[in-house]
Amino acid sequence: MDKLTSYNDYVEKINKFDESSLGNKLDYTWLLKNRVIPFYEDNDSVFIFACKRETNLILNIEYMLKKECQVHLIADEDLDRLLKYVDKRDIYKSNNKISIFKVEDQDETDNIEIIRYLNNLIETAISNEVSDIHIEPQKDKVRIRFRINGRLVDKDYLPLEHLQIILTRIKVLGRLDLAERRLPQDGRITFEYENRDIDLRISTIPTLYGEKVVIRLLDSSFKYNTLESLGLSLDEIKIIERNLLKQNGMTLVVGPTGSGKTTTIYSILNRINSEEINITTLEDPCEYKIEGINQVQINPRQGLKFSNTLKNILRQDPDVIFIGELRDQETVETALRSAITGHYLLSTLHVKDSVSSINRLKDMGGENFLISSALNLVVSQRLVRTLCPDCKEEVSEDKFNLGIKNSFRAVGCPNCINGYTGRKAVFELLEIDDQIKEMINKNKSYFEILEYCKSKGFKTMREKLFQEVIDGITSVEEIIKII
Question: Is the dihedral of CA 73, 77, 81, 84 positive or negative?
Answer without folding.
Answer: positive
